């Protein structure tokens, strides 16, 4: 039945809206919907020609049947287009959400299971430590470039460039910082991975995995976003 494939796409989009990552692009479903819409358009053109032929006759019954068929065909085409646009808009919104987090996307490799394991651990680490999203539900905190199609990857890169250009006009303001006001000026943090020496206004310390420090939050907020540190609550 017309619209069933589009309904599957919408259900997939609804499920992905509650995820913290962006699932793989449903290219097969999208192509099927486009083919169905093209077939419906051909049917509509045929029905229009048939309607023009019936206008010169007194066959009112067949004319009404033709009009009803044409109406349903146009409704099916419009619904398919709206479902496609809604799916693309949802994925675009999740990509823009991720772009503001200053987190590097991941790119999984199917060549070895160990690589996949390391990537998944890295993604989970980003999800756990990002201060912008730990108190927000249904927020996109990880991105696998292989799950995006070619056009989405271009959109992601161009949107990142746009953000960087916009931020350059406000060098003294961290536009991608935590939106929630801090409850404490100083916090306890745990080092998640080695990162060398860090110099702050109150001194220097080395990022050695599993070590802990009591530091000013504003000095290490960027390191928390990048996944080097985790705030101990």
UniProtKB/TrEMBL annotation:
Biological processes, Gene Ontology terms: DNA strand elongation involved in mitotic DNA replication
Entry-linked InterPro entries: GINS_A, GINS_bundle-like_dom_sf, GINS_Psf1, PSF1_C
Cellular location(s): Nucleus
UniProt keyword DNA-binding present: no
Residue span of region Disordered: 109-131
Predominant location: nucleus
One GO CC annotation: GINS complex
Feature: compositional bias, Low complexity: 109-130
Keyword Nucleus (UniProt): yes
Domain GINS subunit: 48-169
Family membership: Belongs to the GINS1/PSF1 family.
Protein's job: Required for correct functioning of the GINS complex, a complex that plays an essential role in the initiation of DNA replication, and progression of DNA replication forks. GINS complex seems to bind preferentially to single-stranded DNA.
Subunit structure: Component of the GINS complex which is a heterotetramer of SLD5, PSF1, PSF2 and PSF3.
Protein name: DNA replication complex GINS protein PSF1
Organism from which the protein derives: Candida dubliniensis (strain CD36 / ATCC MYA-646 / CBS 7987 / NCPF 3949 / NRRL Y-17841) (Yeast)
